[in-house]
Amino acid sequence: MTEFKLSLSTKLINQHPEDKVLINAAKILFRDIHKVLVGNDTGNTIRLIKSNDFDLEGDNFLIRQSQEGILDVIAETSLGVMYGALAISRECLGIDDSWYFLDSVPPKLDIATVEGEKLTLPNYHVKYRGWFVNDEVMISRWKDRDSQEYVWERIYETLLRFGGNIIIAGTDKNSHLNRKPANAFGLMTAHHHAEPLGAQMFARVYPELEASYLKYPELFQALWQDSINEQKGGKVIWSLGFRGQGDRPFWDDDKSKVWTEKDKADVINEVIKLQYDMVKAADPEAVCAVNIYGELTKMFNEDLLVLPSDVIEIWADNGYGKMVSRRQGNSDPRSPILSSDNKLGNNRGIYYHVAFHDLQASNFLSKLPNSPAFVSNELCKVRQVGLDTLVVTNTGNIKPHILFLREVAKSWLEDYRPRNNDEIFSEYMNYFTDPEQDNIKDAYETLFDCFIQYGEHEDQKAGDEFYTYTIRKIIQSTLRNDHLLEEMEWLKGTATDIDTQVTIIEDLVNTKVADWMNLHERVQLIYKKIQNDVIAERFYNDLVLDVVNHYRGSKALLATISAFKAYRQGRIQQAFIESFNAKKEIEEVLNARKENPSKKWIDFYNNDVFTNMGLTHRMLDSYMQFLRIVGDNHEQYQWERDFLMEPGDSKVMLLSNTHDALSNDYLGTKMQEK
After folding, report:
1. How far is Cα 357 from Cα 482, in angstroms, rounded to an integer?
2. What count of other Cβ atoms lies within 10 Å of the Cβ of residue 333?
3. How many other CB atoms sit within 10 Å of the CB of residue 328?
């Protein structure tokens, strides 16, 4: 038979019109054919077929010409057919796996040749491969093509292109809304560790009742059964366990007794066994998992946890990519995960973060502060100890973290090995084919030398939340006259008073602010020199905004510290000026978003409510007002006399004032000039 040629006249036939996964596979392939091809001279057909007649294992697919002019994409599973359609899109039409989040545009072709025998599913080492789209506050308030549905469909598509097969599609209500749409793309769904079986939270359904399993076991069990019934027939990995009503230990909500460690474990073991039996009654072949996270880690280590033998244990990194237990408040035991003994003999997996939200120093708006090579090495260690039956990655809002998500996806492959930064960045530079490419690569490499090292361990580096959360804590503590900043003892160094704390923070920021300044100048210059508009937009959104967040954030924090010190010394006017400086630095971040050259992404960061540059800006404005209230006179006119008027005029008091009080910003600008 002659080669199979794709053109605009190629027909797509879904042999199973009732199958939603194949419907979506056909839509994607049809879209990509019409996105890339311009020729219209082949009257042939592609058929999407599910069949058990070809001895295909799992989600493997077969692409072959069954007769002249007919190309069949065959698999035993709907997901396998989807993978086959995406293989044609990628290998024959040139659609990049990251096209949606990196805005890559394939070259136009007249026709495209399909060599089906060369298209196969990669050999994956990791059985369950996926994403937890968690803390998705920006995604959940953002629309593309005036549609939230379109955004989530592109998330599912991107995960599938990366080779994924499982998703937790959002947090809380989003995850419930997105289960069936995710299934319709062929993805299995799983559950947040705080939402066992994906059930509704007890406190939301019964707000008038105490969330006590001991008091209301039947009500809890009814919620679990309702969730099982709702998801029955779908592709699910069932999360077993029992936490409180806000991702915290259940005994924080249940005050019915004094809880010993054995009491706590008895309840959790009873609940896990009950949930397991409920799920297996609905589907004897169901896959179940338990997150060994938070309080369950301690129970496991003390041999108090009892699990069914076919349940997957899911362990977690510390939120910064290191396989040790996470910091909770000021407590950071860093219990090792990789050396944890597999006491129960269960299959094991990991929940791994390339984005995190800990209200302390994590990365929400920008990249993980530990390098791609660090992540690569850590994931290879995970494989060495058999913790990779399942790998689910916390994606955050995806867009800022695509570099790392690509690398984690590569680690799912059987032949993956540790990769260094040069190798990873050299490959990533395929997205930046511009005369500035070498400078762009150097800027990415330099980025990972700029993060603040806040602790003695290599992974203890500060993400973008560090600046704004610390600024807001300093402001609040100043106004409340606190003795210490709340939950800041995790920083290296010891402090028994707020002044020492703030000095430690200042010293840390000063170790890297010059590096951020230099990198900021470099990326701004590179951006201006990039010749291709699409590449310039990509660079702006993928690196420039990261650097702006850190450079301006660090300067804002230093200015806030200067304001704090001036206030403590009674120099209120200087504190006002420094607060104004801090506010202007945050404005630079907000302005950088407004100046985003991409029409698609210009409003993506509007709902940044974690790092929350907007709130930080407002709090600094309020702090300026506080300083003016306590430092200026009751008419807020004296500072104007001191700084703006000619010396002779400032001493003439025939009129107490001649106009309304100046705005804080205008006054700050003029005071700064003096």
Report:
1. 25
2. 12
3. 14
